[in-house]
């Protein structure tokens, strides 16, 4: 090893890249690679989302349609086979309420829960929720459980 082959340790230095707009001596002064005039050459320029160079943007060319009911209640569905799976995993014993469903990650704390009738329920459960389908309610009661509406 001598002074002619000294190098910094691997990974200790970073290549900084071109220094743009630092005077004529750098070779990247003047317009600083931005070309002449126009919005793109100015400082503070940012293209709006969906801007197509002045052409009518896609979101304005495509017709609007449909209707959104602002009073619609969106229910978070929980199926019977999911509840049976939780019983099999010993995560729930004899009662399921809204708080339990939130803790197990099946519903958010601000959501409205509806118990749906997919699958079968073998264990006796007291299920507390905002709504039940007719098949879910029948299946819970057939298993000897109870469906309590919040």
Amino- and carboxy-terminal Cα gap: 80 Å
Structural class: alpha/beta
Overall strand count:
6
Give start-end ranges of low-pLDDT stretches: none
Count of individual helical segments: 4
Write the H/E string, N to C: HEHEHEEEHE
C-alpha geometry: elongated
Q: Mean of the pLDDT scores?
A: 90
3D structure, described in words:
- With 150 residues, the protein is α/β, with parallel strands linked by helices.
- 19% of the residues lie in helices and 15% in strands.
- It contains 4 helices and 6 strands.
- It has helices at residues 58-61, 80-88, 98-103, 134-142; strands spanning 75-79, 95-96, 112-116, 126-129, 131-132, 146-149.
- The strands form 2 sheets. Strands 1-3-5 form a 3-stranded parallel beta sheet.
- The chain starts with 57 loop residues before the first helix and ends with a strand.
């Amino acid at each position: 090893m001598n002074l002619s082959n000294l190098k910094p340790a691997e990974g200790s230095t970073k290549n900084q890249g071109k220094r743009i707009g630092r005077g004529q001596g750098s070779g990247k002064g003047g317009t600083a690679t931005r070309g002449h005039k126009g919005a793109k050459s100015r400082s503070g320029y940012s293209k709006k989302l969906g801007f197509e160079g002045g052409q009518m943007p896609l979101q304005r060319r495509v017709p609007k349609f449909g209707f959104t009911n602002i009073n619609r209640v969106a229910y978070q569905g929980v199926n019977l086979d999911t509840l049976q799976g939780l019983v099999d995993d010993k995560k729930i014993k004899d009662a399921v309420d809204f708080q339990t469903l939130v803790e197990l990650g099946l519903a958010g704390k601000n959501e409205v829960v509806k118990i749906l009738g997919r699958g079968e329920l073998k264990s006796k459960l007291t299920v507390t929720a905002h709504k039940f389908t007719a098949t879910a309610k029948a299946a819970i009661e057939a298993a000897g459980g109870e469906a309590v509406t919040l």
